[in-house]
Batch of 2 targets.
Target 1
Amino acid sequence: IAGITQAPTSQILAAGRRMTLRCTQDMRHNAMYWYRQDLGLGLRLIHYSNTAGTTGKGEVPDGYSVSRANTDDFPLTLASAVPSQTSVYFCASRETGSTGELFFGEGSRLTVL
Amino acid sequence: TQLLEQSPQFLSIQEGENLTVYCNSSSVFSSLQWYRQEPGEGPVLLVTVVTGGEVKKLKRLTFQFGDARKDSSLHITAAQPGDTGLYLCAGVPPRVNYGGATNKLIFGTGTLLAVQP
């Protein structure tokens, strides 16, 4: 089934550790996004990429980095995790320039102790 | 910063009741989307409204975009347990505000709906 695959599904991490959340899509969408979801705050954009080789900062980029080496993959890295980064992380994609549907992965639940 | 406020934040109702969820902002959006998210899954698009005053129906769900394109509502008639989930509105900012980069949706705070059998 076409769509977005995120890994891991869930992870518990000690503060200070480095962590990479993986995201792969097979829809050949140019634009990809990383959101974090926290109760009462909705979905907040961390980083985005309009096309392979380009990235941009969203609303809450501090403490996170991304790369976009190719169309399909968009990993999110926490260089040194802190407890405030405990959240559910969603990767999403859609066609560049489109104001249409965002396709989301199933999320990665991260707990930083 | 453009904000989208949703109300109510939580709603628990009995099967068969009607309800309305509101999505409000002080800013204008070029279009607005509604998503539903079920536990353990990502949000899934329900509808996109584009024109001020537009009304769209999806079975028992009715979506309306405000005339000034600053607000939207979702009305569910005769709610069913299958309607349970988190409802999120998301606005597309006007192109002029972002120098052309209008690909960044602004999400609302969400409404968690529980429909009891």
Target 2
Amino acid sequence: SQQGEEDPQALSIQEGENATMNCSYKTSINNLQWYRQNSGRGLVHLILIRSNEREKHSGRLRVTLDTSKKSSSLLITASRAADTASYFCSSLDTGRRALTFGSGTRLQVQP
Amino acid sequence: DGGITQSPKYLFRKEGQNVTLSCEQNLNHDAMYWYRQDPGQGLRLIYYSQIVNDFQKGDIAEGYSVSREKKESFPLTVTSAQKNPTAFYLCASSIDRTGAVNQPQHFGDGTRLSIL
């Protein structure tokens, strides 16, 4: 079962623009995590936001969490061509102590 | 450097054949996971293990088997019962000690399995 679903499925922007991706989840969470996947590679952990946090920053990344709406967003500011990748949100399936992942947002940053 | 190593990077399976994908980690993590990823899709959990000599089925365990005899190793066997094995397989690990749930997962670079 998939806990999170990202929106949009695909996003194409110009270098220097901001990219915003959204994630909705179904059940209560302790935290929500965002990952990045370059084509043909494994996932890389980007940022974790706890359920009692509303916003978190890491470099050019800004993550927000709205537990009342069961949603999160990932903002990448001043995007670069190297940001081209798929981005996934994930949260814990407490029933089995394993993360579940959405289908991801495929971001294309045009140079 | 600590990390997760998956091998081989590419693997081909003949009909009726079992194949084993290797996953080794030197991060001293307790928990390990196997995911399947189909083109343009997210990750689906196959099996996971929170401790040596114990593992649990995920969402799509049918046609797969695992073992966890050592903390560092969590091999995945794709059996002949898995009729559609062509996919990208990802192994991950996390600390997952008691009281430290939801820790970030570290991923290997995957094995791409195809049918001959």
